[in-house]
């Protein structure tokens, strides 16, 4: 039986005690959800030598190797370091950042992978009042569930219509899953209330009758999942791609300043007021 003190110490290093109370699972960290071939080979080596020859993916895109014996933990730490592998991802810190494949995906409006890499380098593992999760997605499909993270970034592309260039081909309406576009008398009819700013119409329109009025990201704060589910609040505007990291910087600085111990961003917002939290962030950005 592993004592409580050792459990807590190892958890901070990414070694989580399993339900048999004898073995640990170690979490190896990715970069924006990506591992190199060499890293995967080295994780396999650890799994074969100290585990049971298999590994699994966590919900935050890390690789977990189970069945590490307590007496082998220090050996795994030493060999992982020698192999260039990093482990961790728990505690009252910024947790592993998650990003979809918007950088290469047909639907991506922002370079999700690069944004995630930069934010990961700056914030992963740094101390916060409570755990803090950051998620980045490239479009309204929201594959990585950005708005149930403490800070969520969602790529957006706001359409702008020029009916004089429309030839009535109907490609835009056929590709609009929200039915926000339809063709009448060979001209576009746009229902803004149905639009989710996914950008499909902009990418589809050949005669450039629909172009991007704004392209960047909507940013959400205060989301969470699990025992207490909460959808994050939008900051209410579209930020250009080069503004995303400065906005996250501002949110993190403010959270660390006003957050009490054991408060996630959502808890801080409930305490001081959602409107005040958002207005304070926007004021700092102006």
Low-confidence stretches: none
**CATH fold category name of the largest domain:** Sulfite Reductase Hemoprotein, domain 1
Give the overall shape.
Answer: globular
CATH architecture label of the largest domain: 2-Layer Sandwich
| Main CATH class of the largest domain | Alpha Beta
Radius of gyration: 22 Å
Give the SSE order as H and E letters: HEEHEEHEHEEHEEHEEHHH
Strand order of the largest sheet: 5-6-7-10-11
Secondary structure category: alpha+beta
Q: Give the N-to-C terminal Cα separation.
A: 55 Å
Largest sheet: 5 strands, mixed
Strand content is 15-25%
Measured as a percent range, the helix fraction is 25-40%
Specify the CATH homologous superfamily of the largest domain.
Sulfite Reductase Hemoprotein, domain 1
GO cellular component, one term: sulfite reductase complex (NADPH)
Organism: Clostridium fermenticellae
Family: Belongs to the nitrite and sulfite reductase 4Fe-4S domain family.
Pfam families: Fer4, NIR_SIR, NIR_SIR_ferr
């Amino acid at each position: 039986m592993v004592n409580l003190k050792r459990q807590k110490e190892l958890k901070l290093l990414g070694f989580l005690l399993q339900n048999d109370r004898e073995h640990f699972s170690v979490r190896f960290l990715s970069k924006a959800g990506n591992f190199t071939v060499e890293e995967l080979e080295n994780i396999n080596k650890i799994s074969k030598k100290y585990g049971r020859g298999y590994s699994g993916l966590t919900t935050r895109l890390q690789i977990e190797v189970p069945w590490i014996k307590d007496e082998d933990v220090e050996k795994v730490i030493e060999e992982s370091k020698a192999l260039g592998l990093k482990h961790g991802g728990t505690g009252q810190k910024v947790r592993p950042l998650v990003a979809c494949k918007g950088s290469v995906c047909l639907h991506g409006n922002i370079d999700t992978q690069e944004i995630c890499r930069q934010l990961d380098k700056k914030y992963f593992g740094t101390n916060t009042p409570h755990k803090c999760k950051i998620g980045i997605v490239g479009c309204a499909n929201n594959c990585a569930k950005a708005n149930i993270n403490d800070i969520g970034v969602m790529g957006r592309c706001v359409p702008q219509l020029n009916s004089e260039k429309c030839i009535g081909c109907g490609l835009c309406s056929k590709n609009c899953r929200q039915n926000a576009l339809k063709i009448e008398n060979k001209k576009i009819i746009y229902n803004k209330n149905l639009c989710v700013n996914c950008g499909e119409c902009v990418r589809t329109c050949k005669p450039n009758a629909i172009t991007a009025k704004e392209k960047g990201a909507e940013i959400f704060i205060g989301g969470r999942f699990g025992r207490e589910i909460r959808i994050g609040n939008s900051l209410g505007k579209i930020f250009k791609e080069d503004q995303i990291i400065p906005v996250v910087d501002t949110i993190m600085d403010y959270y660390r300043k006003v957050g009490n111990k054991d408060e996630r961003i959502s808890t801080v917002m409930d305490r001081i007021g959602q409107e005040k939290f958002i207005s304070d962030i926007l004021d700092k950005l102006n």
